[in-house]
Design goal:
This protein has about 270 residues and is of the alpha+beta class. Helices cover about 30% and strands about 30% of the residues. The protein has a six-stranded mixed β-sheet. Strands 9-10-11-12-13 form a five-stranded mixed β-sheet. Helix 4 packs antiparallel against helix 5 (about 130-140).
Length: about 270
């Protein structure tokens, strides 16, 4: 990925991004989550966390989750050792609820090892280990393994990854915070496991997808999730090591840029 289509949103944006790279922001977020002993609570296909003002700033800057206003389900969770009721009681004014997608939550839990995830039971809150979280997420999302492998692949390279649903893609990837730069890539995940549901299987699929990407000034990035050998046991997240990611940047061919200039007898490129 060369990120050739960088479109900063203002003339100072590139300098701001260089002065505070995403890798450093992620490190500060990781440290803050570890120190606060923040616990995420499963809510359907998302994970809810409660953040103080400093953690809220870091989550926003690192582009993890989205702030929410609606009350989470009845339960309890802790922040810095203090128990908070989640049954509609008044919460502290400096606390903000965030909703993390499953890939985001598992990245913080498994890859960065800085977020505990729990579930609500009749006996109270129950912390989950990585295998239990993995099984829960795979049950909620059939292609979670492939989606997480692609998400973590991009995040590890310090790309900001967001949903690409509005562009007909799995993800969109930003060089830095979306307030500073437009997304450069529309990401589609390809895998041997999505037989019968695979996209981009015909020329018309490719043509329409490339036209859409071109109309929103994005490069199509296909991430192919491939097994290293024979099929492995997918009941544990350790199976992620048995897969690798191949990147394919797909760009439309523009005839006007490649035809010969009749006045000079030279190719325009």
């Amino acid at each position: 990925m060369d990120g050739g289509g960088v479109r900063w949103k203002n003339r100072d944006a590139a300098a701001i991004a260089d002065a505070d790279p995403m890798s450093k922001i992620i490190y500060r977020l990781q440290s803050s989550l570890e120190q606060s002993e923040t616990c995420g609570l499963f809510s359907g296909s998302a994970v809810l966390i409660q953040a103080g003002s400093e953690l809220t700033k870091l989550l926003n800057r690192a582009c993890f989750g989205r702030p929410i206003i609606t009350a989470p389900p009845t339960s309890s969770c802790s922040l810095k050792g203090t128990k908070y009721k989640l049954d509609g009681e008044q919460q502290s004014a400096d606390l903000q609820w965030f909703q993390l997608g499953m890939e985001e939550a598992f990245y913080l839990n498994y890859s960065l090892n800085c977020l505990t995830i729990c579930r609500s039971t009749r006996e109270g809150r129950q912390n989950l280990n990585a295998e239990e979280i993995w099984r829960h997420m795979k049950e909620r999302q059939k292609m979670f393994l492939q989606h997480y492998k692609a998400y973590s692949h991009l995040r590890a390279k310090n790309w900001v990854v967001r949903s690409g649903l509005q562009y007909g893609a799995d993800f969109v990837a930003y060089r830095h915070h979306p307030a500073l730069v437009h997304s450069e890539y529309a990401v589609i995940i390809s895998s041997e496991s999505d037989v019968g549901q695979a996209r981009l299987t015909t020329w018309s699929d490719w043509q329409s997808t490339l036209r859409l990407c071109g109309s929103v000034a994005k490069t199509l990035l296909v991430l192919s999730i491939m097994p290293r050998g024979n099929k492995t046991d997918e009941t544990s997240p350790t199976c992620l090591d048995d897969y690798f990611v191949e990147e394919f940047e797909i760009r439309g061919w523009i005839a006007e840029k490649h035809r010969e200039d009749p006045r000079s007898g030279k190719d325009k490129t």
